[in-house]
Every structure is written in C-alpha cells, then in structure tokens.
Amino acid sequence: MINNQWYAVLSSHQLRKGRILGARRFGEDMVFFRTESGSIGCLNSLCAHRKASLEKGRLTGDRIKCPFHGIEYDLTGKCVYVPAEGRASINDHSRFHMKRYHTREIGGIIFVWYGDKEPDKEPDVFDVLTDSSYSYDHTEDFWSVDYSRVIENQLDVSHLPFVHRDTIGRGNKTLCNGPKVVWLDKNTMQTSADNEVDEGQTPKNSEDSEIKRTNLTFKFPNMWLNHVTDKLLILAYFVPVDDEHAIIALRFYNRFTGIKVIDSLIATLGSIANIIVERQDKRIVETEFPKKTGMSIGESLLAADLPILEYRRKRAELQQESAELGNAYASTLSEKKTECLCRTYGE
Q1: What are the start-end ranges of the E strands in 135-288?
Q2: What is the pTM of this model?
Q3: Residues β-bridged to residue 114
Q4: What is the pLDDT of residues 81-91, one digit of tens each?
Q5: How far apart are alpha carbons 95 and 99 in whole angstroms?
Q6: pLDDT, position 325
Q7: How far apart are CA 157 and CA 177, in angstroms?
Q8: pLDDT tens-digit profile of 312-343?
Q9: Domain annotation for the chain: domains and CATH numbers
Q10: Rounded to an integer, what distance in angstroms lies between the CA atom of residue 302 and that of residue 295?
Q11: The dihedral of CA 61, 64, 67, 72: what is its sign?
C-alpha cells in the first residue's frame, strides 16, 4: 500500500441511506454507513468493548449502535453512549473510541483516506466523474491477487493479441512500438498501445513511439481511464482488499446520442463487453506469482513493459515518501506527548 492517499474503494449505490455495510479494505475489516442526513461514516468494524462486529448493528440518527451491548459511536468514531453506565454517566469513554477513516464522495464513488496522518489534500479524480453529459453503467469483479497485479494488467500493452485475441486484441498486432509513457503531472501517467503486425521490422523505441488517440491514463493510487473516443470512456478503479485479493470496478461512460435513456442503454450493453474482456484478463492474471508486485520479484521485463516499470518506480517512490512523512509525524506526536507529560510532572 501507499500510505497517506485517497483510495477509491466503494460505489455509492452500494451504500444507501440508513444502511450499514461491512467490507474488507487494506487488509482491515471496516464498516461503512450512511445516515439519513446523507453523511458517510467509516470505522473499524469491531466494537471496542467486546469486539462484536458493528456490521450487525443499526443506525440511530447520526450514530452507529453496537448490536451486542448498545454502545453508540458517532461519525468520527467517538464513543458517545454506553447504556450500561446510563445517560447521566460522566465517566471518561475515550478508551472506547474507534479508529475512524476519513471519506469523500465524488461522482458516485466513495474514497477513503488511508494513512497515519490527517488528510492534507483532496482525491485526484478524472473529470468524467463529475461530467453530467455522460451516462454510465457500473460492474465489478473479485480477483484473487493483490490490487497491484490488477493495475499492472491494465498498463500491459503486449498481452492484447494473446489474452484478447478474439476481442479487443484482434489483428495479430504482436510487435510493440515503444510504448511511450508521459507524465501529465506528478500523480498521473499516460501511455497507449502502438502495436503492429510483425513483418520483420524493428520496433520503434519509446522516444519515437506515440500516444495514440485511444490511450490509457493512470492516477495514483488506484484509478485508470481508457480514452477510446471523446464520446466513449472506460474508467476503472482497483480496490485493495488484502495482499491476495482485490476488486476491479469498471464503468462504461458514453454520450453517443445525448439522450440519457438511450445512452444509459448503450452503457448497459457496454458493461457486458467490459465483463467479457475483464474475465479474459482475470483467467490469466490470477495465475501470476507472487500475487503482489514490486521492484524485485524475479521477473525479466521487456521494453514493452515500460508502463509497468514506471508504475513500480513511482509506487516505490511514493511509499518511501509516505514512510518518511509517517516517521516525522510519529516523532512530532511523541514530542507533544513528552511535553504534556513534563507539564503534568512539573505540576
């Protein structure tokens, strides 16, 4: 994982008002809940009291209530009521406070801040999420690999004529020019397949290759966009479940006619095509080992794997940066704690 990042983790349609949803993310069991006012909470799933799952609880106003002993928590994870001690209790309930995850909701996607410090930025998203001229349909699937494997598959330009030989890889274009990779900003990389039928020619290097009109753009930490045409976009986000499991969420966006009911029907049909292509990928990627990728995992990469290598390099860089920031943040907290103790001792 890359700490201190906003991850797209859940589709909004899965979390209706008044509903509690249990989900495993980042190797941790969480509960998401949406209050009647529309606010979203995300907490560690196990009650601080006897470790019963809050997934089986219920909502009372803007609070989530444990099903075991009725202890209530607010949206921030603060324990606000312990029934066994009565509403008049003046006891300190801070030991019951839960781990809280900050959330944002943009374009029908719920983002969670994963890190050891408070959010210092907003989610970096593609414009299509908030562009009402598009209609979309959503589908998702569960994969038995780390999310990094799923991401790298979507950046792999040389697998198309083999894995997808009867769908998007038709034409036997096995020779890979480049591919070219450009960084649109410090968080966003773009590439495209520039493949040809192998007739004995020498592939172009990355510098001489080009970004095609149909291209792929990836935003760290886990969002990808396939620009097919200005009227057809395929968006994906790759949900980290744990080190050996992930969810790929796919959205087919289009504005072919500008008539919502027709474009929505096209999007539904587009999702069927997305599923066919995605299942072709899944069948192969789930056989890869190790299930989680990294800079040194025993693979022998090719020039055609440049987008994957760029992803790994940037991911390692961000992991290093977040580790350094985490150490600095922990040091600051430690100093503040020591200062407080000294003041208490001095008193």
Answers
A1: 135-143, 175-176, 181-185, 188-191, 195-196, 215-219, 223-229, 232-242, 245-254
A2: 0.93
A3: 5
A4: 999 999 999 99
A5: 11
A6: 77
A7: 10
A8: 999 999 999 988 876 665 565 556 555 654 55
A9: 5-114 (2.102.10.10), 132-315 (3.90.380.10)
A10: 14
A11: negative
